[in-house]
Every structure is written in structure tokens, then in C-alpha cells.
Specification:
Layout: E1 3-10, H1 20-34, E2 38-48, H2 61-70, E3 79-82, H3 85-88, H4 93-105, E4 109-114, E5 117-121, H5 127-160, E6 175-178, E7 183-186, H6 188-202, H7 207-216, H8 231-238, E8 250-254, E9 261-265, H9 280-287, E10 313-315, E11 322-326, E12 335-339, H10 340-343, E13 352-354, H11 355-368, H12 371-378, H13 381-414, H14 420-450, H15 458-471, H16 477-494, E14 495-501, E15 510-511, E16 514-515, E17 519-524, E18 529-535, E19 539-545
Parallel strand pairs: 1-2, 1-3, 3-4, 10-14
Antiparallel strand pairs: 4-5, 6-7, 8-9, 11-12, 12-13, 14-17, 15-16, 17-18, 18-19
Helix pairs in contact: 7-8, 9-14, 13-14, 15-16
């Protein structure tokens, strides 16, 4: 009993709906019947929608058959039936011939079932048949190569006109293609989701907190609404320049050794290809990650950012961070700031201060300050000028690299000067330097944006900051969280540290060391220190302190 195995391949999924599959199967069935062959139980090996031009089928159906031959599961003398040799391979002639000869050498009879009739290729194949086989291999590779060149040329032509006509209907996830007008248009709810991402990132939230916020506040993921947002998808969106309207053409390259396809950028970005859906300054600040608060958000913050001061509020007595203790509802409940060392029974006494009162007193203190003077001590003109100098320097260096790359490109084309290999190595290094310098320049520009506009009107700045605080009592939980994050960002721009001096139950107000009443010490970014002493429930007394003083 002689066994027959079948191999069927076509290169594009669209051919599955045509007669390619039926045609190949009919020819195989006819050959098996007329030659009294027996189809092996696992005879059918298929590569449907897989190209043979780069040998991709060697990693799938055809590769599985070869593996069974090598494992001795396919007896010598068995037949491998296919419509034509171009089904087995469309690679270069020598690669296709090597593949064919390796199967024949292992005792496999390769049969092609073309319009001219069946042709058996084995160790008895004569010279004319071999020549015809080589010719078929050459034609198959030549056709695929020509088709590949035509496709590349067509795409290149489309890309040259991409600024005035879309190269395809394919759109980013927040856009759709309007067939009637032949333009891309935003999907409003998805654009709103992206704007919320950038709003949260600009306010200082990290990827994890943005993901949690989106998933818990009804912002469905674009790709998998049931699975929700992931940190990786948020990260990619926050850096996607298509949001600014740019289109980056890509091409498919192949690793000749592994045959693996790789999608790589091809040429320069094309501006204004997509509709711009986000402010460029906001995008640069967020994508460069240079605009987060000095004191990052850590720990659990709840739905409304319970503690505005996490990361920069400390116990005045021992220097340990203050933590939030929630004692629940009721007359004795509430949220309190407590020294973290004291909570763990270490070297500090347990003293608590109602958090809401502390937050109120800090805001009262900021209301009384000349905030412009404080900011001027942090974001000085000197710092801004230094960044602008660095921007100019980086821009000059980038221009020099680009000029040198242009010169070397001409040398490569004309074959002048050093060897091609040397020129390629130099160009590769320069391209890396170009990318690094470009990233440096964008980061510097983001830093400059991150400084914010100079504050010339302290009353306006103070009013804006306190409006954030006032608005929190008239918005829903979702908006309140964002408002409090923004408020925290503004406060962390002003304050380096808040020190809390709480008073324990039954502790005397006056001691041998002086006043023992509850008070706050504010250290500002410009180096100034302020004492904040509550007076009753709704007022404070504030005075300047010498630098580095530690009053009791």
C-alpha cells in the first residue's frame, strides 16, 4: 500500500472564498484514484492564506510535513501531491531547489498536478523535466518579486500624496473614515476618553492610577471593553503622535535567517494627515513625563484623593511621615493625621489632628500669601533662560547631525570615499545620535512648558487655586478626584514640606519649653518657612520663621 499526502496552499485569505481550494483538491483526488494510492490518515497539510515567497509556509503546514518525514512517520516512497511547485515555494531558485531535493533525497515523490498533466519528481527525473522544474521555480519567484515591487511602488506613490489623500481607510482607534467625504473624523466618546487620560496624567497621576480611574468610572477600553484598560495601552496612547495629526508610514522587512516579518518606520512623519485631537503643549508635557508633581502620589488614595499632602507632610517632633487614620463615622469618627512612627509604637507619642482641619488651615495660609513671590523663587527667569539655552544648543547639534547624514547619504549613493561598509556604520551611529538628540530636544521643550507661564497676578493665581478647593463641594466623585489631584499639583509646586505639630489628649498647652499648641510649619520651595497657628475654628495666625529653625 503506497501512501499519499497532500499539500494545499494559497497566499491570501481572500482566495478561500474563490475556487483555489476546490481546484487543488479535485486534482489531488483524481491522481489518487487513477494511481491506486491510499491517502494517509493525517494526509492533509495546508497553508491557507500563507505566502510562499519568504518561506513562511516552512513554519506551518509544509514545515509540519517535513518534520514528520524527518521523524520517520512518513514512509519512504510516499507521494506528496500539490497543484504546482509554486505552491511549495516561491523563494529564490536555489532555495526552492534545495527544498525539493531534500524531500526527494528522503524518499518522497513530489507530484505536481498542473494543467499540462501530472509530473512526478523523484530520483529518476530526467534532465528535460529538471530544466522545466527550474524554469517553473524561476518564474514563481520572479512573479512574486515583481508583485512585491509593484505593491511597494504603489504604496510609495500613495505616501507621496498622503498629505492630500489618505493612503487607506485604516484609522487609529479614536477616529473613523468617512467614505462619503474621504476624510478621517473623530469618534467623540473615544476622544473624550483620551482627553481624560491626558488630563489625569498632566495632573500627576501615573499609569496605574489612570487605568484604575478609567475602569471604575465608565470609560470603556477601545479594544476590549469587557477586559478594561491596561497600563500598556494607556502608555502607548500617551505617546502616540497620531493624536497630533501625524502619520508615520511603515514597511515590512524580513529577517532572511528566520523569515520573521518586522514592521519598521519608513521615511519621515507626515503632518496633518489625521485630525488633531489634543493640544500640542499638553501632549509634550505628558509624553515627556516632565510635568508630574515633585511629591508623587503613593499608597491608597480612595475615590476622592483623601490626603492632598501625601509624600510631603511630616511629624514636626520626630520627622517621620504623617499617615491618615480613618476612624469611621460617628461623633468620635473622622479622618486624622498621625505620626507613622507613633502608629507603629516607635519613638514618638501618638498625637492626632483632624485631617479636614489641617487641609483647611493650609488653604487659609496660602490665601494670605503673595503666591507670585513664592513661585518667582522657584521658577525663576534664570532657570527658564538656562533651559532655553540648552534647547538652542541641542537644536544646533541636531542640525549638524542632519547635515552630516545628508552628506553621507550622497556618498553612499555615489559610492565615493570610504568603503560602503564603513559609511553604513557611520550612518548607523549618526542615526542613533540623531534620535537621542531629538528626544533630548523634545524633553527640554517639555521642561520649559512644565515651568508654566510666569505668574504676574498673585490675586488671580490665589483665586484660581482656591476655586479648585471651592468647586470640590459642587461636583460628582469623578470630577472631585481630578480637582483634588490638580489642587495637590498646585500645592506641591509651592510647598517643599509641611510639618505637623499635633497635641495629644490631656497634654498641656504651655510647657517649660514654650507654647505646646497644635501648629503647622510650612517650608516653601523658595526656602522660606512659615508658622501657621490656628485661632479658633476658622482663622489662623501666620508669621515668618528663620531658615532651619525648629521652634517648639
Amino acid at each position: 500500500m503506497t501512501l499519499a499526502y497532500t499539500y494545499i496552499r494559497f497566499s491570501t485569505p481572500d482566495q478561500a472564498s474563490g475556487n483555489s481550494l476546490d481546484r487543488q483538491q479535485l486534482a489531488i483526488d483524481e491522481f489518487v484514484r487513477t494511481h491506486n494510492l491510499t491517502l494517509a490518515p493525517s494526509s492533509a497539510f495546508k497553508d491557507l492564506g500563507i505566502s510562499g515567497f519568504r518561506g513562511a509556509n516552512l513554519r506551518h503546514g509544509l514545515g509540519e510535513f517535513i518534520a514528520e518525514v524527518d521523524a520517520g512517520k512518513v514512509p519512504r516512497g510516499s507521494y506528496l501531491l500539490m497543484e504546482s511547485l509554486d505552491r511549495m515555494s516561491r523563494q529564490r531558485v536555489m532555495e526552492s531547489l534545495t527544498l525539493l531535493l531534500s524531500l526527494i533525497d528522503k524518499g518522497i515523490k513530489v507530484v505536481t498536478l498542473g494543467d499540462a498533466g501530472a509530473r512526478v519528481l523523484d530520483k529518476q527525473t530526467d534532465l528535460p523535466t529538471l530544466f522545466m522544474t527550474l524554469s517553473t521555480m524561476h518564474r514563481a519567484n520572479d512573479e512574486s518579486e515583481m508583485k512585491s515591487m509593484r505593491v511597494r511602488a504603489a504604496w510609495q506613490a500613495k505616501r507621496r500624496h498622503a498629505a492630500i489623500k489618505p493612503v487607506s481607510r485604516r484609522a487609529p482607534e479614536w477616529l473613523y473614515f468617512d467614505d462619503r467625504e474621504s476624510v478621517f473624523k473623530p469618534v467623540p466618546e473615544r476622544v473624550n476618553t483620551i482627553l481624560k487620560m491626558f488630563e489625569l496624567a498632566d495632573a500627576g497621576l501615573g499609569r496605574g492610577r489612570i487605568v484604575k480611574f478609567l475602569n471604575t468610572n465608565g470609560f470603556p477600553s477601545f479594544r476590549s471593553p469587557t477586559q478594561g484598560w491596561q497600563a500598556s495601552s494607556v502608555s502607548k496612547l500617551l505617546k502616540n503622535r497620531s493624536l497630533l495629526g501625524y502619520y508615520q508610514p511603515h514597511c515590512i522587512s524580513y529577517d532572511e535567517n528566520t523569515g520573521v516579518k518586522k514592521r519598521t518606520p519608513d521615511g519621515e512623519e507626515i503632518a496633518n494627515y489625521y485630525p488633531k485631537v489634543i493640544d500640542e503643549g499638553l501632549f509634550l508635557r505628558v509624553s515627556a513625563k516632565k510635568y508630574s508633581p515633585v511629591a508623587p502620589l503613593v499608597g491608597r488614595q480612595g475615590k476622592s484623593l483623601s490626603n492632598l499632602f501625601t509624600g510631603f507632610i511630616y511629624c514636626h517632633r520626630c520627622g517621620a511621615p504623617m499617615s491618615l487614620a480613618n476612624k469611621g463615622q460617628g461623633t468620635k469618627g473622622g479622618r486624622y493625621l498621625v505620626c507613622s512612627k507613633a502608629r507603629r509604637g516607635m519613638n514618638c507619642k501618638y498625637r492626632a489632628w483632624n485631617y479636614d482641619d489641617v487641609e483647611m488651615y493650609v488653604l487659609y495660609a496660602l490665601r494670605q500669601l503673595d503666591l507670585a513671590a513664592v513661585i518667582a523663587g522657584v521658577d525663576t527667569d534664570e532657570r527658564r533662560q538656562r533651559i532655553r539655552t540648552d534647547v538652542a544648543r541641542a537644536a544646533v547639534e541636531l542640525a549638524k547631525i542632519e547635515a552630516r547624514l545628508s552628506e553621507l547619504s550622497v556618498a553612499l549613493v555615489e559610492g565615493q570615499g570610504a568603503s560602503i561598509r564603513t559609511l553604513v556604520n557611520v550612518v548607523t551611529k549618526l542615526e542613533l545620535s540623531h534620535e537621542e538628540k531629538k528626544n533630548e530636544l523634545e524633553a527640554l521643550k517639555a521642561q520649559e512648558l512644565g515651568l508654566g507661564a510666569p505668574i504676574k497676578d498673585p490675586a488671580t493665581y490665589a483665586q484660581g487655586l482656591l476655586q479648585l478647593y471651592d468647586q470640590m463641594y459642587s461636583v460628582n466623585d469623578e470630577d472631585r478626584y481630578v480637582l483634588r489631584v490638580r489642587l495637590r499639583q498646585q500645592i506641591s509646586r509651592l510647598l517643599e514640606k509641611i510639618e505637623v505639630m499635633a497635641v495629644g489628649k490631656d497634654e498641656p498647652i504651655v510647657t517649660s519649653k514654650g507654647n505646646n499648641s497644635a501648629k503647622l510649619f510650612l517650608l516653601f520651595k523658595d526656602g522660606c518657612r512659615k508658622l501657621v497657628l490656628p485661632i479658633g475654628k476658622n482663622a489662623i495666625h501666620m508669621e515668618d520663621l528663620p531658615a532651619h529653625s525648629q521652634p517648639d
